[in-house]
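Below sits our specimen:

——
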Amino acid sequence: MQKKLIALATAALCATGAYAQSSVQLSGLTDVYAGSIKMAGDANRKSVVNSGGMTTSWFGFQGSEDLGGGLKANFMLNSFIQVDTGVQGRFPNDTFFSRDAFVSLSGGFGEVKLGRWMAPNFLPSVIGNPLGDSFTFSPLILHKNVPLFNASGWQATTPSDTGWSNQIAYTTPTVGGFKANLQYQFGEQAGNNGKKNVGANFFYFGGPLTLTGYYERDQISNPGQGTYLGTTKKDWMLAGAYDFKVVKPYLSYGQAEADNAPGKAKTLQVGASAPLGAGKLLAAWAKTELTASDLDRKTLTVGYDYNLSKRTDVYAMYMNDKITNQSSGNSFGVGIRHRF
């Protein structure tokens, strides 16, 4: 009997030790705002309670297992959700885990990911502007990633979504505040393996200075399985910010072009954030010029983001949006964002 108890205790300790080497977390973010939206070219104003004022709401799982010798196995399965309605995804027919769906190995060599992950354009665009990843109020994100389905016919300048499926991504170790990602998306086109997306980005964090940028050459659409775009699109951007403590200015510039269309889309963005009380004042302005048509879009956003705690903040934003030969739009919203 005593031997059996010792064996059971030993097995329990081994199981506990094995479990301690791995971890799984449930995490996410919910963001909902109320406001009135009128974009450039809209015929009418719309009053809304919408999801994702400052950050697209999401939830999911992530975990890692320590394999020993500094090597780890990791995974992420994250899904977007529209919290105002409970509908999954960013838009109709968005794939379930469109935010992240990958497995990886990491160690002193860096990290290698297989699956769906951020496209090279996304994180530099987020870091390079004071309103982060706001698909509602950030001028830079709106110009790059959100087409307008109205009289303006405005198209996003980003070639192929903010996430890539079917990709291999290599992340370098951080050396002296610098790291980079090299990314390749398989087109998986039957009979034509030459169709693909390739890209890279970099990040430098040196005290108060932040520098980032990316380059993409895209032939495949996203999300999901993806299809051939019918052309080759190229997109690049450089961005920087410097934290003076009393104010943090931002600056970015980039271009986008397609082989089957004349001209380029040139986007300049300037912005700043400044601490005020328990929050920050935020301001950003972006101008995108379409060289083939002499059309341009100018968007200005100002607002305040107040931290109720480390995980919860409330915000108020005002935005003015203009496109050549179109009616201008003014939007405002107040919202709350909670991380878990």
